[in-house]
Write a structure and sequence with these properties.
Blueprint: E1 14-18, H1 25-35, E2 40-41, E3 44-46, E4 60-62, H2 65-73, E5 77-83, E6 86-91, H3 92-100, E7 105-108, H4 111-123, H5 125-128, E8 131-137, H6 141-151, H7 156-170, E9 178-181, H8 185-199
Parallel strand pairs: 1-7, 1-8, 2-7, 3-4, 8-9
Antiparallel strand pairs: 3-6, 5-6
Helix pairs in contact: 1-8, 6-7
The structure holds guanosine-5'-monophosphate.
Guanosine-5'-monophosphate (5GP) binds next to strand 5, strand 6 and helix 4.
């Protein structure tokens, strides 16, 4: 009897999503997950302290600098980077199990981490076959500055640091596979949903023997 497509032994995808602070990345990823509740989020490790209502194991695994370093030395990270003077890293255990079970996994990481994964993909065709790099950009730097100031959460010094970092990050967009410009939230959310549903059709996600039955 023919197998259902859900039994096709299809791999999940690694969706690497980057974009500067203030670009609306979290809102867009939230929209994506509303549309596809099956997509899961890789929970990163960080040495920064929790903000507001953030909980260990929900938004991040909050680690001490020593714990982070130990995990790094143990080779537990797929990538790691320093962002705003703190360390952030993606655990291999957050990603690979999901991919093998056919579950798509979102990695909301900065450009340094994304470039490390890109290098790994260059050396590992199996990883490359399931990994896509998506960059979320603002309509312009001026608009990004306006949004950062409108949030009224950061001090002037923080805003300037975020803008400086954003400029550097924006220069990396050509290294990614896809660019979504968040000018109009509804349009950008629709583009992201359409992109992710198309990416699930990449041949690299399918088992080579799917027709042998
Ligand atoms: P926040 O501290 O505001 O939650 O995140 C700051 C930045 O760190 C964001 O740009 C976010 O994408 C990035 N980030 C979060 N987790 C990771 C991670 O595991 N690896 C890397 N390289 N960046 C991360």
């Amino acid at each position: 009897m023919a197998k259902l497509s859900s039994e096709l032994n299809k791999k999940g995808g690694i969706l690497v999503i980057s974009g500067p602070s203030g670009v609306g990345k979290s809102t867009l990823v939230g929209r994506l997950r509303e549309r596809f509740p099956g997509i899961e989020f890789s929970i990163s490790c960080t040495t920064r302290p929790p903000r507001g209502t953030e909980k260990h194991g929900v938004e991040y695994y909050f680690l001490s600098a020593e714990e982070f370093e130990q995990r790094r030395v143990n080779g537990e990270f797929l990538e790691y980077a320093g962002v705003f003077a703190k360390r952030y890293g993606t655990l291999k255990s957050e990603v690979f199990g999901r991919i093998e079970r056919g579950v798509d996994c979102i990695l909301d990481i900065d450009v340094q981490g994304a470039m490390q994964i890109k290098e790994k993909c260059a050396a590992d065709p199996e990883l490359a076959a399931v990994t896509d790099f998506i960059f979320i950009g603002p309509p312009s730097l001026t608009e990004l500055e306006r949004r950062l100031r409108d949030r009224k959460t950061d001090a002037e010094e923080q805003i300037l640091l975020r803008l400086e970092t954003a400029k550097k990050e924006l220069s990396f967009f050509p290294e990614y596979d896809y660019l979504i410009i968040n000018d109009d939230l509804e349009k950008a959310a629709a583009e992201l949903i359409c992109l992710v549903s198309s990416l699930s059709l990449r041949v690299g996600r399918y088992d080579r023997g799917i027709f042998d039955r």
